[in-house]
Amino acid sequence: MADPLAWIDAESADWSQRGLARTLVPHGTATPGRQERDGRWLVNFGSNDYLGLATDPRVIAAAVRTAEAQGWGAGASPLVTGWSDAHQSLCADLTAFEQTEAVTLFPSGFAANLGTITALVGPDDAVYVDRLNHACLIDGARLAGARLRVYPHNDANRLGTILQRDRGRFRRSLIATDGVFSMDGDLAPLADLADLADRFEAMLLVDEAHGTGVFGPDGRGSAAACGVAERVTIRVGTLSKALGSVGGFVTGSQRLIDWLINRARPLIYSTALPPPAAAAASQALAIARAEPWRRERLHAMSLRLRQALMASGLDVGASAGPIVPVLIGSPQKTLELAERLRDRGFLIPAIRPPTVPDGTARLRIGLSAAHHDEDISRLIDALTSS
Q1: Annotated catalytic residue: which of 87, 241, 368, 371?
Q2: Tell me, what's the pLDDT at 25?
Q3: I need a surface site. Which of 38, 79, 209, 351 has the fewest CB within 10 A?
Q4: Using an 8 Å Cβ cutoff, are 335 and 22 in contact?
Q5: Catalytic residue among 84, 173, 182, 240
Q6: CA separation for the pair 215, 217 (Å, rounded)
Q7: Which superfamily is assigned to 24-45+292-384 in CATH?
Q8: Are 203 and 233 in contact (CB under 8 A)?
Q9: Does the fold of domain 57-290 match that of domain 24-45+292-384?
Q10: What is residue 28's predicted lDDT score, i.e. its pLDDT?
Q11: What was the pLDDT predicted at 220?
Q12: What is the pLDDT of residue 18?
């Protein structure tokens, strides 16, 4: 009998030979800025827990209280019986924080982008995406059946040329971009993109996954940092990074949110977020707003690390925040360096194609307010002496 999956063997062998194979590695107990792996405690520079809230006792306590009162699972989709007062409270908190009309929740940030894009555009429309956008923005456009237009990274001039060429060709146009690029740590030129959206009557979607809680006034994200939050049609965020929980959200006008509640399939046909996760996110948001020192410390450490690495001749790209890439190039060399750093007590992921373009394999350092000054000093020494 023929093996219908025999093709996987050859392709997997090629993947491994190129140093691109991945495996799931179990990690153990976590404390702020630390992670247990293989019986060893490592300084965790591989996380997106930017404010150090994922293990904060107040966040954990909020989740436990809600789990004891409501159970862990929501049990149904939000439009059936899965929407709880914890979800409603979180939406109210996020609406106030984002200074917008309304918010709705999704199972993940990926689902939020996927569901939003497919609810807004279809085969008669076009979606304009940055070359380095997160996969969920690309996949959302593809799943919607829209015409996908890719412009060079952060090149607003080229995007303007493409929009001008396409003027009048499509029913609706959507410009979709990361606010902070997840593998490079640089910001999108959001003021320029907002101008183009106005000029060409396009919707503008900004994915604030790595901006919420980190950039802008009160941590309201990259669009707020660039002074254009009110000009962005759709802002998408995640609860799983700076807010230390899990899930995604979309913020915007009431009519946008009402539309998504009725048309976004990942929202309609997925079980709602666990109520304890919603409660944890609400508590984390309250802490982030009450303790701005976390954000301030995060940026101070980020600046210190970037300056030290650049002074030693390492390539950190155009990073502007707590995501600091160290570009290596070769996947195998990047893996070897990550292993040597692990031997010295640091957990730093090796990021390889297809997550990043060919020839740009890198270490991706993710800083947290929970890191100590000594952690940064040791990391600088390890990287500059490797």
Answers
A1: 241
A2: 86
A3: 38
A4: no
A5: 182
A6: 7
A7: Aspartate Aminotransferase, domain 1 (3.90.1150.10)
A8: yes
A9: no
A10: 85
A11: 98
A12: 87
- pLDDT at residue 30, rounded to an integer: 85
* Closest residue by Cα to residue 312 from 299, 326, 295, 329: 326
182 is catalytic: yes
Whether 87 is catalytic is: no
Output Rg (C-alpha) for the chain, integer angstroms: 21
Beta-strand relationship, 34-37 and 30-31: antiparallel
Active site residue 372: no
What does the pLDDT look like over 262-312, one tens digit per residue? Answer: 999 999 999 999 999 999 999 999 999 999 999 999 999 999 999 999 999
Alpha carbon distance 209, 172 (integer Å): 25
Q: Which two tokens stand for residue 148?
A: 């996908």
Domain 57-290 falls under CATH 3.90.1150.10: no
Q: Give the residue ranges of the chain where pLDDT is below 70.
A: none
The amino acid sitting at 218 is D
Tokens 């701005």 locate to 292
153 class by beta-carbon count within 10 Å (0-12 exposed, 13-18 middle, 19+ buried): middle
Assigned token pair, 209: 């996954």
Q: Answer yes or no: are the C-beta atoms of 197 and 175 closer than 8 Å.
A: yes
Query: Mean pLDDT for the chain?
Result: 97
Q: Which of 199, 211, 153, 152 is nearest to 173 (CA)?
A: 199
pLDDT at 95: 99
Q: What is the DSSP code string of 337-374?
A: HHHHHHHTTEE-PEE-TTSS-TT-EEEEEE--TTS-HH
Choice among 84, 87, 134, 210 that is catalytic: 210
Helix, strand or coil for residue 219?
helix
- Nearest alpha carbon to residue 164 among 196, 194, 137, 186: 196
